């Protein structure tokens, strides 16, 4: 059984006699008695098992025990590497959105995720060198397993949006360090977001120039507002030289900050 093999690999003593009534108690004791690092491994293992079962249910295909174990180890390694990278990065809490230069357009994107429905909304806003909104869009996504997948899907949809509108020179910004780093690395991605990562990389050749940048949340606020504001809507939306009122206000605050520093 895949579950038993995986839990054995991460050194979790799991008995098939545990019933639904005391399962939560058993799990709570695990997290009380183990160290933080061990709890992290266990949490990732359960998440990987759940994701694998969901893939089998929705797509009819999943990994065997060896594949799930390899995925867990790779994910842990990736998190450790990102934590080390983040510890060396310092951003001012006052950092604001900055406009692109010349005829380059800047795309900011974000995603809101609803765990209870496995839905996400991608928000993409495009602005020019004057900080004016060129275009914006939202996409409703179904069967999203976690927030990382939600952001990765938003990344792909932002690139597709720019491609469909014929933009040639773009900068793409997000406050998701994990996704940005995966887009920058030349190594084949083998994580749960490998599919959107590969598709984004395949579309890069459509642009004359494209750069990926990580920014703190305060510099990505307009996209965040767009994704959150459209969470209650049941369809994808598009705007040209406009956006919902709350997003236009957020973009205007970014422009006000730029003008105040001229």
UniProtKB/TrEMBL annotation:
Q: What is the top-level taxon of the source organism?
A: Eukaryota
Which InterPro entries does its entry note?
RNase_H-like_dom_plant, RNase_H-like_EbsB-rel, RNaseH-like_sf, RNaseH_domain, RNaseH_sf
Single GO MF descriptor:
RNA-DNA hybrid ribonuclease activity
Q: Which organism is it from?
A: Gossypium hirsutum (Upland cotton)
* Protein name as annotated: RNase H type-1 domain-containing protein
Residues in domain RNase H type-1?
108-228
Q: SUPFAM superfamilies from the entry?
A: Ribonuclease H-like
């Amino acid at each position: 059984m895949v579950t038993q093999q995986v839990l054995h690999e991460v050194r979790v003593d799991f008995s098939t006699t545990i019933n639904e009534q005391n399962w939560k108690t058993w799990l709570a004791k695990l997290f009380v008695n183990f160290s933080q690092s061990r709890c992290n491994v266990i949490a990732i293992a359960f998440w990987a098992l759940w994701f694998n079962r969901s893939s089998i249910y929705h797509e009819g295909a999943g990994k065997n025990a060896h594949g799930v174990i390899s995925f867990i180890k790779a994910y842990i390694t990736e998190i450790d590497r990102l934590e080390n990278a983040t510890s060396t990065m310092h951003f001012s809490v006052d950092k604001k959105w900055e406009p692109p230069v010349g005829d380059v357009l800047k795309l900011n994107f974000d995603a809101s995720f609803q765990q209870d429905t496995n839905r996400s909304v991608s928000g993409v806003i495009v602005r020019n060198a004057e900080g004016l909104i060129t275009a914006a869009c939202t996409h409703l996504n179904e069967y999203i397993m976690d927030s990382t997948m939600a952001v990765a899907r938003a990344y792909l949809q932002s690139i597709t949006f720019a491609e469909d509108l014929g933009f040639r020179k773009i900068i793409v910004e997000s406050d998701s360090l994990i996704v940005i780093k995966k887009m920058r690395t030349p190594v084949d991605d083998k994580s749960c977001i490998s599919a959107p990562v590969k598709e984004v990389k395949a579309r890069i050749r459509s642009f004359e120039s494209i750069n990926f940048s990580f920014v703190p949340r305060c510099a990505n606020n307009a996209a965040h507002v767009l994704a959150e504001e459209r969470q209650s809507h049941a369809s994808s939306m598009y705007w040209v030289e406009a956006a919902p009122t709350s997003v236009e206000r957020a973009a205007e605050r970014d422009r006000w900050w730029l003008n105040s520093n001229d």
